[in-house]
Amino acid sequence: MTDQNSAVAQGRPPATGSVRRIRLPQKLRNLELGLLIVACVINAGAIVLVQLGALGRVDTQLVLLGAGLSVLVFGLHVAMRFVARDADPFLLPIATVLNGLGIAMIYRIDIANGDVGWESAAVRQIVWSAIAIVAGIATILIIRNHRVLFRYTYLSGLIAIVLLLLPLLPGIGREVSGARVWIGFGDFATFQPGEIAKIALAVFFAGYLVRNRDSLSMVGRTFLGMRFPRARDLGPLLVVWALSMSVIVFQRDLGTALLYFGLFLVMLYVATSRLSWVVLGLALFFGGALVASQTLDYVGNRFANWLDPFSPERFDAQYGGSYQLVQGLFGLANGGLIGTGLGQGRPDLTPVPQSDYIIASLGEELGLAGVFAILALYLLFVARGFRIGFAGQDDFGKLLGVGLAFVLALQVFIVVGGVTRVIPLTGLTTPFLAAGGSSLVANWIIVALLLRLSDTVRNHPRLVIDG
Amino acid sequence: MNRELKRVTMVALLMFLALFVSSTVIQYAQAENLAADPRNSRTLYASYSVERGPILVGGEPIAFSQPSGDDYKFQRVYSNGPLYGAVTGYIPVNGEATGLERSLNDELSGRSSSQFFDSLNRLISGQDPMGASVEVAIDPVAQQAAWDALGDYTGAVIVTEPSTGRILAMVTKPTFDPNRMAVHNSEEVQVTYDALLADPGDPLFNRATGGDMNPPGSTFKLVVVAAALESGQYTPDSTFPNPASLTLPGTDAVVRNSGGGTCGGGAEVTLADALRLSCNIPMAELGMQLGDTAIREQAEKFGFNDEFAIPSATEPSVYPRGLDEPQTGLSAFGQGDVRATPMQMAMVSAAIANGGIVMNPDLVDAIIAPDFTPIDEFQPSEYGRAISEETASTMTRMMVNGVETGAASNARIDGVSVAGKTGTAENGEDDPYTLWFTGFAPADDPQYAITVLVEDGGGLGQEGYGNLIAAPIAKQVLEAVLNK
């Protein structure tokens, strides 16, 4: 920690070289523009291939809708030319290509199911993508300096709690396939507020930990070579743990609980450098999960399916069986190394192939090569996020960047790991790919925040040189 | 802070590494195992989504695939299903395929190694994958004649070409419509299958090449006479004692001739007369003189105790090892533990017709790729020499006499010399007989070898006999093909 950073963390407005904007060519933005064009060509190509593979002809309507989306993405790019000139050039193209691949695959499932018009999940996904990208543009335009968020630490925490509780409210709470994590009004616009909550939580954790890390890291007694915190400092950890456990019990959503808790632990560790927190936290969480697996049927089923999905009693079980898991494995195996080709596999044989299982659908039609490419894109995205953590100038920004990047990595791990039997299967959306508006909005806001954070990372050293 | 960040980066990297490994395990290492799982409907749909090649008889499809508009994409259709069911078999959406649908599945579905480049070509040029077509040797005239002649009897008819082994007709009854097993509804298929399985007439049997095999009865005398002539110690004029009954040594079992009395007149009977009149006692005497080893070795030269892929799998006919003297005596007229399929007996007749050389039986003439290039064309192949040319011509004369003046008289055809041998086999004390005819025509220039099997005594219990029921069926079929 340098003095300058402390000062920054306290909210001093950054100096910006306004003259420089005119002088320097926007190399980063030009790179981004090139990559964006590539991404949009890939997306349009994917939709055309789906149509050729599954319909045998090209239908221009959906291509045009996709083109409309590209216009919005370029809109975000243009906005950045003015307000985030030095932002990371890779984040936006990666998000764009993942979003587009997702739309192509959702569209492909629509064709298999015979859904058209507003019945079509792909059309809804495109509309949601438009809303999400507009939300991203708004985020980057409104939040000109991420340190503003530091002021709203506790408000963010409150917002997160409220968003989490919303689905439990009678009237607007909705239960979908057992998990009570949705809200809706009438039959209209179901939304998973938990997706937005993860951003609010990341902001809250970052702000809270920057403020309180001294007391969390400095005191305590040493045991087994690790310094354990004092009992009264355990409060925050216990609160988040209780929050996660209540998500498991009341919302019946194992994946989300793991996501929140994992996010908190990592940010706590980065902020305090204390491994003991992680050890304590993991012990608490797995202790809780173990109890849950014994007492809650749905958790127990998930574990049993994970351990032995091919046993006839698991496969044929009427409720909570391994049918979906095994169908997903069959689909991935069907794809093999190079896949069946877009529109030519049978991803529709797996339940919910367009949301929880979209990675299995993509794996079937694009093969192991496609899965590797998608995972590599996520990995690159996450690496760009971590880069903010390494090169960032202020602790709040560093923590927030790491938190947002890690939450995305963890989410990919939980859902893809669940599908590929690394861990028990839990329902989570695959970022950018899966059908679902709330997830898209949340992830595009994450893109905007990471772009904003990366802009400041680039800014500072240059500013020193210019100045 | 950066030290912790490095560790978190490592954790994230490990998480992704785990995903790379797990997806590789599933999509590469375990892919084949997963595809082989019987619950994997993708594998099933994939085997249907290829336009399966047709099975052709004289250029006309007897099995073909047409677009179905459902998950399976193509519906398999068996035109004239019951008539050709023994040839085509069927391919169900659940359970195993049978017949050529099973044995040539790789070729029909375009997955055989010889079709690899063709498939690749179609993939690159954007054409839908398609299986090869199979042209079978079946002669539609012979097949229809065999179907009509067999009528409502339980049994089988098989016609082969002696010089090549090509199977020209193969009919089994009772049978069923394979289209019923090809419906795209696994429950319906299961119900149909269970009903067929429970049917006392055993319609699922292909009696021409398997099923519950029957004792060949007197048709097996051809094998014993062949063994005798080949030994060099016997000629058609060799004589045997001619009693009206024979008690097998060391037993109470009494052998009688089918007429009940002696074999023709006289105290002794020649080998030629014994075969012509199909007498059991002299054959039992001959068999015991030859011994079971000599008979078995001769039988095995004709193909007994061996499997043949035509290319559908067939049941091996049986001549057991280690028979004692009375058992050998019984085996000499095709009783005891001897069992034979019509295809095996057709091979015996065809070998005699073919100068002593046994040809491997085969149903398939050609396998043709979708672009009309032949993948595989029929080449006659020898199983081996069973008897000398001399023995073959001697036996042909004896079999012609059997039809002209002997026990197989109902196979006579005006203007054509027919060689034949009937059989009437006992199954148990009170059970109906099994009736046989095996032979070939024309005897001087053999074009067709035929074997007829009628189970269940042809409905006459122990009143039916080979010449009464089986020989006329053979005659009707031979007339039809010779008059083509």
TrEMBL record, chain B:
It holds the Pfam family PBP_dimer_2. GO terms for cellular component: plasma membrane. Residues 155-479 form the Penicillin-binding protein transpeptidase domain. Residues 52-134 form the Penicillin binding protein A dimerisation domain. It comes from the Bacteria. GO terms for molecular function: penicillin binding; peptidoglycan L,D-transpeptidase activity. One of its GO terms (biological process) is cell wall organization. PANTHER family: PENICILLIN-BINDING PROTEIN 4B (PTHR30627:SF24), PEPTIDOGLYCAN D,D-TRANSPEPTIDASE (PTHR30627). This is Penicillin-binding protein 2.
